Amino acid sequence: MAGLASIGVIGGSGLYEFLDDAEEVVVETPFGLPSDPLTVGEVAGRRVAFLPRHGRDHRYPPHRIPYRANLWALRFLGVRQVIAPSAVGSLTVTYGPGTLVIPDQIVDRTSGRAHTFYDEGAAVHVQFADPYCPVGRACVRQAALSVGWEPVTAETLVIIEGPRFSTRAESRWYAAQGWTLIGMTGYPEAVLARELALCYTTIALVTDTDAGIEEGEGVTQAEVFQVFGENIGKLRKVLVKVIETLPEDRACPCPHVLDDLKLPIQLP
User: Fold this and answer.
1) What DSSP element (H or E) covers 81?
2) Looking at residue 217, what is its pLDDT?
3) Residue 148 gets which letter from DSSP?
4) 8 A C-beta contact, residue 235 and residue 151
5) Under DSSP, is residue 206 helix (H, G, I), strand (E, B) or coil?
């Protein structure tokens, strides 16, 4: 099935309705089934594979998402560039709900998640200093500006285990480190993409201010869903523009991260 799509979008329901001539594709991987069958279609003349991160019925909490199967399935279909929209909280009052952020760094505060494809057979150490594709980030910035949405760039996203939200003390501690965004799904997604030599770019939509940053009752799931829903139309416009402008030939460092490494498994 390789070659069905070159661009992948990992996101929630409502983000793949813009696909033309869509078809479902079931992919079995060495790491089990992905969150759901992938939907493959055309956007702006490009073949795109969409994967609902939590499943279409939102049945997978962040710590139970089959991240390895998801990324493996995308590569199996031919995907080499991944765009990953996600809802995040803000660790600063500067970025309120509705802010679009293109992070450049990530901090892992999860525990117990399978976060490598290379856990036996050989020691494989993949470069991860800059976790996101520089070309993808530039394309997202230009796409957002083209639809009148000024994005914030060069921010750090900390990923927590979930599914609970942070205590006030935890969010204050994260903010004290200089981290500005908080989420539950960006890791191990980013590192697994790197281990498959994929370009990976996060588009972070701020849906709330974290518990310890402002006075109030704290974050609720209903609040997150509401703000995300209010911005889904603009986010789809950004995604279409990104898909239009991503270069077909990858000139970034991402395709070469595995060049000098001896891999214990055969990649799809």
Assistant:
1) strand 81-90
2) 58
3) T
4) no
5) strand
Percent of the chain with pLDDT over 70: 92
CA pseudo-torsion sign 163, 126, 138, 53 = negative
* Gyration radius from the chain CA atoms: 18
Q: Identify the pLDDT of residue 233.
A: 86
208 is catalytic: yes
**CA–CA gap between residue 213 and residue 115 (Å, rounded):** 30
Q: How high is the pLDDT of residue 245? A: 96
Domain ranges of the chain: 7-256
CA–CA dist 118, 104 (Å, integer)? 25
Question: Is there a catalytic annotation at residue 249?
Answer: no
DSSP code per residue over 111-138: -S----S-SSSS------SS-S-HHHHH
Give per-residue pLDDT as tens, 171-222: 999 999 999 999 999 999 999 999 999 999 999 999 988 876 766 555 667 7
**pLDDT per residue as tens digits for the range 26-73:** 999 999 999 999 999 999 899 999 999 999 888 999 999 999 999 999
Residue type at 35? S
Q: Which of 57, 208, 259, 260 is the catalytic position?
A: 208
Euclidean distance between CA atoms 1 and 5, whole angstroms: 9
User: Quick one: DSSP state of residue 147?
Assistant: T
Q: In one letter, which amino acid is 247?
A: P
The CATH code belonging to domain 7-256 is 3.40.50.1580
Of the residues 210, 249, 259, 260, only one is catalytic, namely: 210
